[in-house]
Amino acid sequence: MSPVIHSLLETDLYKFTMWQAMLHRHPRTQAEYHFVCRNRESADLGALLPQVEQELDALCSLSFSKAELAYLRSLRYISPDFVDFLRIFRFQREFIRAWADGDELHIVAEGPQVHVMAFEIYVLAIVSELHYRRFDAEPALAEGRRRLRAKLETLQAFDAEPKRRNPFDLFDFGIRRRFSGPWHREVVDAFRRAVPQYFKGTSNVFLAAELDLVPIGTMAHEYLQMYQALGVRLRDHQKAALEDWVQEYRGDLGTALTDVVGMRAFLSDFDLYFAKLFDGLRHDSGDPYWWGELALAHYDKLRIDPGTKRLVFSDGLDVDKALALYRHFADRTQCGFGIGTHLTNDLGLPALNIVMKLVRCNGQPVAKLSDSPGKTLATDATFLAYLRQVFDAPAA
Question: In the chain, at which residue ranges do the beta strands (DSSP E only) sit?
């Protein structure tokens, strides 16, 4: 059986964009990432340990090819010196370890952040695909193709609806919890061919390069979490992170993630300066209608026309939920919809809910609060309580 990961481009775009920012601004940072399965009671991932070890060995043997580096160099926001760094980059096996505790799988990446932060998406794709290789692929793929056709038919029927002020833009965000790499490609290619008027890109950089799609992504939770331990006042960490992003990308990649300490706390820092500099906001927890209305009210309060901004929804979406949100917001603001599991792992099998999150930085705990119960992540209860106190954020 071939390795799950065969190219280092096969990761989310935002891993590269955050990686570049950290290499330029905080290259000496040490970090620790933990793999977590939120629904492990039904998964028995511990049995996958020998295969996971083999896949990690294979991952650490990969390097970027000349063609892959040329593709990254073609993206205007990727700097030449970062490409030079990637030219000599190789994952170090000593920085990642895995072990099993009964049916529970543990994976920890620990070391210099610029050498361990990129493990995340590869690890998640590896664990997900190894898990689903234990199922009978033929009936699963048959059901997946039936559901894929239904999604495409729904979008084709959507053509008949009256046009709204802003277009419906759909993206693939499905690499981390996909059924398999080949199925991921099949799904993305099907959307690209059948509904190009709606399907605008993928977070998977490898597929973007291969299928001539726009790579999609800006920042993830880890980027803002890092700043909780980078020497600024905890109360100011979001503003410091956003300011560094603005200075790094100078107008590119202008979608800010809002839920590292909750939407209300985020908006208290997202003042007129940042609201004008960033193109829009990304939703990843909490009720999306509540979140979107709060965002539009914030722009109105700042006397910014919401129609000039963009709301990107990416939390547990399927096509029907995305269309419902579009109908609600599209006459007032630009919208984008990133769909993950429901695109690349909708085959009638129980979906894994796996993440690999930053938990410590420079020896200090960091945490992610959330507007959704169950999505808060922290390994230090004292720090979590302090973070809630500083941002006046109630327990979700």
Answer: 30-37, 96-101, 104-112, 168-172, 199-202, 255-257, 280-283, 310-313, 334-339, 354-361, 364-365
What's the predicted TM-score (pTM) here? 0.96
Mapped onto helix, strand or coil, the DSSP state of residue 90 is: coil
Q: Tell me the two tokens of residue 265.
A: 């706390």
CATH class of segment(s) 144-344 = alpha beta
- What's the token pair of residue 56? 């990690």
> What is the reported pLDDT for 43?
74
First-last CA distance in the chain: 43
In the block, which residue shows the tokens 């769909």? 339
Secondary structure, 3-state, 149-190:
HHHHHHHHHHCCCCCCCCCEEEEECCCCCCCCHHHHHHHHHH
Do 29 and 85 form a contact (C-beta atoms < 8 A)? no
Q: How confident is the model at residue 40 (pLDDT cuts 50, 70, 90)?
A: low
Domain 13-134+352-391 is classified in which CATH homologous superfamily?
Answer: nicotinate phosphoribosyltransferase (3.20.140.10)
Question: Would you call 217 helix, strand, or coil by DSSP?
Answer: coil
